Amino acid sequence: LTVMSSQGTARQLFSCSYVCFIARQDRRLTPQPQPRSHALARSLDRSRKSLSLQNADVVIRELSSTRASLSRARRGYAEMCSGRHSITSGHDLQGKTVVIVGLGNSGRSAARLAFVRGATVIGVDHNCSCKQLNVVEDIERYLNFGRNDFAKTAEVDRCLSVGSFLRTELGDFKEATFQIADIIVLSPGVPLTQPQVAAALCQTKQGSKCTVISELAFASQCLPKMLPIVAISGTNGKSTVCSFTAQLLASCDCRTFMGGNIGKPLSDCALEFILAEHICGHLADLGHHWPYDAAVVECSSYQLDHPGTLRFDAACILNLTPDHLERHKSMANYATAKTQIFAGLRGTHTLAVLPKRESARGRHQSYQVESDSTTDHIVDLDYDGATLLEKCREAVIKTLMRRVSETPNERVACIGGRLAHIGSLPGVKVDLNTKIAIVHLPSNRSSSRQNSPSYVDLSAVSSLGTHNILNASIALLMAHSLSPKDFTVARLKVGLDRLKLLPHRMQLVAQTGNPSFRGIHWVNDSKATNIEAAIVGLQSYGRRALVLLGGKAKTGTASNELGFAALVPALLKHQGVITFGESGSLIANELREAGINPKAEVSQLSDAVTLARAVVRRGGAVILSPACASFDEFDSFAQRGEVFTHLVLRGNTSKA
């Protein structure tokens, strides 16, 4: 808290008093993005009257000379009151062995973070063709191509010399490696049923020193506790809502990290904060020079299923429909994993957002599934998903309350966040006819002030598709919740007309022929990796299209069906279907039984594009809307979308 240590003891004492005084003026203890000069002047004037030290005026002028001084004062006081450091020390894992399980993007990012924290790092992966882990080289490459703020300095070189890298183990996991681990960090693709992981979890419950933790939780340990964080999950739409939220925050001059399950792993964000600390000193002295002012994190069920403590300021689950059942085995398990996102909400300021059950009913088509009694019945998946989420959130809160009651000296004012809904108030409610949204935050229990609803015109977003009007309204709610005072609805809505979609989501990639006279649109919706995502895109698209459907189908809710009959109502408005890929024949059979005859069944995506070019009608469109995973032919949905775009542009087309 010594802001002006070089000015002598009197100034040090005054600085501490000034810090406390300024912090009292802002009870929320958060730095203002654009502090008003007249408010600062009034605070300084009051401080002159209340404090009578010899060098007060000199110190006040020095402290008020930059915006960073006020931010330092607020942050310093907040940390003094809370007794918490801004981030975990960069060398807190010295002498510890960290085993990283899974060496994809998340695993490699966690390895870099563990190394910089001083750990001995061992990377393991079943894939024998996986690239060997070279932590120092990875970090140096990251610094060279990452943010320009972190030019290499002696401090960073010293930081890189702290960790100790041992080896990479590819192929079958070795029991001895897991037995020497102090911390086991799990990449999202690693199931808890993996034998060595399951054994480590069992030993942890029996009092073992080893900690098993998710990559998300491992990264969260190093993030400042005052960094506002939004977490988004759901079966469909989470990447789009994350992107929209980050774009809206950025429109308010808020430097925003976006990552997690999309783009950069959260460990990259944590690494930037640690490197900033090494370069610039303790983060309490950084002021507005933090790498980021906020973070928007996409959380998958795989990540949330893993153990570890998370911290969020706002968390949202958009929807819940059957997906990833090959791993979770049941919808109840899937919902339980998703709702772990609310375990990261602690405090009266936090917000939990769920779909409202009443608004969910009837939004998507219902279809038949097989029940436990083997009798078919109609299930409304959106309604059942919303119901499951409500029940599982309540279970998460009860579990946390029990843990808190059993933990000495731990007090939490609000666990699980204040509840808001998608489709009702408090929350966000959208009229798709008028394109008007009502955004209303629930009132804070610790404040007598009541929040009032705000009305927002979302017409600027309508060109992105009907479903994205709802996505934009949810993003507005989440961004607004981080700081209603700083990120007002009026300020955020200015950014609505600048929102852009992520690639591979109803992306117009090319046009065939004369665009002004019945040209053919080619649309890449490769991100539609399940049936419900495909339904949303196909229902919102205006042209009659030829739909390319296929890939590696996911497990349906019925034991002997994939569930593609649910696509029939959405497909009826379009020109036809071509199925392709590993599950192409099975999909075609289900569609025939439901009353739709595909135009053809082909083995590969390239064959589907060639055939579509020959049969699509003028003035129509071709949509890649697979409703399947991509792993039969591609490494990811992104690669599938890129190949589709390349195949289309290779023909007689003009780029959109």
Notes on the protein architecture:
The termini are far apart. 38% of the residues lie in helices and 16% in strands. The protein is globular. It is of the alpha/beta class. The protein has a nine-stranded mixed beta sheet with strand order 7-8-6-9-10-13-14-15-16, with helices on both faces. Strands 21-20-19-22-18-17-23 form a seven-stranded mixed beta sheet, sandwiched between helices. The N terminus is likely disordered.
What are the defining features of this structure?
single chain, 656 residues, alpha/beta, nine-stranded mixed β-sheet, seven-stranded mixed β-sheet, 23 strands, globular
Which SSEs are present, and which pair or pack?
Layout: H1 9-25, H2 37-50, H3 56-63, H4 67-82, E1 97-101, H5 105-116, E2 120-125, H6 135-145, H7 154-160, E3 164-170, H8 175-179, E4 183-186, H9 195-205, E5 211-214, H10 215-220, E6 229-233, H11 238-250, E7 256-260, H12 266-280, E8 294-298, H13 301-305, E9 314-317, H14 325-328, H15 331-338, E10 351-355, H16 357-360, E11 367-370, E12 376-379, H17 381-406, E13 418-422, E14 427-431, E15 436-440, E16 454-457, H18 466-482, H19 489-492, E17 507-512, E18 520-524, H20 531-540, E19 545-550, H21 568-571, E20 576-580, H22 584-593, E21 600-601, H23 605-615, E22 621-624, H24 637-650, E23 653-655
Helix pairs in contact: 1-4, 5-6, 5-12, 11-18, 15-17, 23-24
